[in-house]
Amino acid sequence: MMIARDLMQVEVITVQDDTALEDVLDLLMQEHISGAPVVDREGFLVGVISQVDVFFGSRTRSGLNERVGERTEITRVKDVMTSPPICANEDTPVHDMAEMMCKLHIHRLPVVKRGRLSGMVSSIDICRAMCHGSPQAEAV
């Protein structure tokens, strides 16, 4: 049975939650990616940010600071990221990841080991495994 560890990309572009949204947008465009995992300084996965979050999140989220009652400007990843993140463990079966992606309409899953980011599996990674005809992929 094929598992996340078998497919995951280990070199993953990440951002931190205090990164400016304009910097994230530049990074996504520069790297030709549509999203990135958000990690803390120790490498623990804390969220996921996508182009949709960057483009539309700051427009749709309330800019109201409820504690003070003042409007706040939404400028950082933490203001619009998806948290807690949807993720897989290194030993999650590929079939389960594919099912989760389909059900939730997402195209990538961060992979964690004991809470720390260890890789990323995209829907394209799963398709490639199936197309290459590996015996394990046929079970997907």
UniProtKB/TrEMBL annotation:
Name of this protein: CBS domain-containing protein
Classification via SUPFAM superfamilies: CBS-domain pair
Keyword list, A-Z: CBS domain
All copies of domain CBS, residue ranges: 8-66, 81-138
Keyword Lipid biosynthesis: no
Gene3D superfamilies assigned: CBS-domain
